[in-house]
């Protein structure tokens, strides 16, 4: 029986985000890309819940991996389970991997930048993610990787301006979910996977997590972990199979 892996992308990322990761996955893992619908967060979580419920009903172990914005959505989904807004079968085997995200308020610099982007979108036609914005999210060792830069820009262009406005606004002002993880750690297997130099993360926040929540940091990347270090994520996913 294959483990079901539900993949939630980050802002302006489509299924191509996972190509490198998928090519390295164990054959015992069956992955599904979750398109973030243009809906309020509560309805996004309900849509995600239905996807996970279907996998649980099939009797499969379920891995949930959220990257960046997707990591916040995955964390919010955990909150909905812990707080009783949504309910999974008590026998469900759910393991959660949160990638390149600390589910708390965004850094003030990032919030200011997002507000400027939203304002600029309203003032003039959106021309897509700039090279400087893309490089801000990549380690310097990838600044000359044109294929990686162009992929990020291509995903952004494909999803378009309406998707960008929605994704920047619907979870811009984020709730600090630290308390959720204090309770969730006793119910679910949870791992944070991140770079050790990501400007969008709050590393002090990691230090407050209960010991049952594992935090794994890697080098040779910055924010775009699925593109820069897919092997790091795959190792965590593959290893989790053997603890089933």
How confident is the prediction overall: mean pLDDT?
Answer: 90
The total tally of domains equals 2
| CATH class term of the largest domain | Alpha Beta
Question: What is the H-and-E element order?
Answer: EHEHEHEHHHHEHEHH
Reported for the largest beta sheet, the result is:
6 strands, parallel
The fourth-level CATH homologous superfamily of the largest domain is Alpha/Beta hydrolase fold, catalytic domain
CA radius of gyration:
17 Å
Number of strands: 6
Give the helix proportion (percent range).
Answer: 40-55%
Question: Largest sheet, order of strands side by side?
Answer: 2-1-3-4-5-6
Oligomer class: single chain
Characterise this structure.
This protein is of the alpha/beta class and 244 residues long. It has two domains: 3-106 and 175-241, Rossmann fold (3-Layer(aba) Sandwich); 108-169. The protein is built from ten helices and six strands, in the order E-H-E-H-E-H-E-H-H-H-H-E-H-E-H-H. The chain has helices at residues 19-24, 41-57, 69-82, 108-123, 131-136, 146-170, 178-184, 203-207, 225-228, 230-241, and strands at residues 3-8, 29-33, 62-67, 94-99, 189-195, 214-218. It has a six-stranded parallel beta sheet with strand order 2-1-3-4-5-6, with helices on both faces. Strand 5 (189-195), helix 8 and strand 6 form a beta-alpha-beta unit. The longest helix has 25 residues, at 146-170. The radius of gyration is 17 Å and the shape is globular. The mean pLDDT is 90. This is Alpha/beta fold hydrolase. GO terms for molecular function: hydrolase activity. InterPro entries: AB_hydrolase_1, AB_hydrolase_fold.
């Amino acid at each position: 029986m294959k483990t079901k892996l539900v993949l939630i992308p980050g802002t302006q990322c489509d299924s191509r985000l996972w190509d490198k990761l998928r090519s390295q996955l164990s054959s015992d893992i069956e992955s599904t890309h979750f398109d973030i619908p243009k809906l309020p967060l509560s309805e996004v979580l309900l849509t995600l819940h239905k996807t996970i419920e279907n996998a649980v009903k099939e009797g499969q172990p379920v891995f949930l991996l959220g990257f960046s914005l997707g990591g916040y959505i995955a964390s919010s989904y955990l909150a909905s389970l812990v707080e009783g807004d949504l309910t999974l079968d008590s026998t469900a085997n759910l393991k959660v991997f949160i990638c390149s995200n600390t589910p708390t308020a965004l850094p003030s610099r990032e919030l200011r930048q997002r507000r400027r982007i939203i304002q600029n979108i309203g003032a003039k036609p959106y021309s897509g993610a700039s090279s400087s914005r893309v490089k801000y999210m990549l380690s310097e060792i990838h600044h000359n990787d044109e294929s990686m830069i162009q992929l990020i820009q291509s995903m952004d262009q494909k999803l378009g301006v309406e998707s960008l406005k929605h994704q920047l606004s619907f979870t811009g002002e984020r709730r600090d979910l630290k308390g959720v993880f204090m309770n969730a750690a006793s119910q679910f297997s949870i791992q944070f996977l991140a770079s050790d130099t990501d400007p969008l993360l709050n590393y002090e926040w990691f230090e407050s997590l209960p010991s049952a929540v594992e935090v794994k940091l890697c080098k040779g990347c910055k924010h775009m972990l699925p593109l820069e270090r897919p092997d790091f994520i795959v190792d965590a996913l593959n290893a989790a199979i053997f603890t089933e």
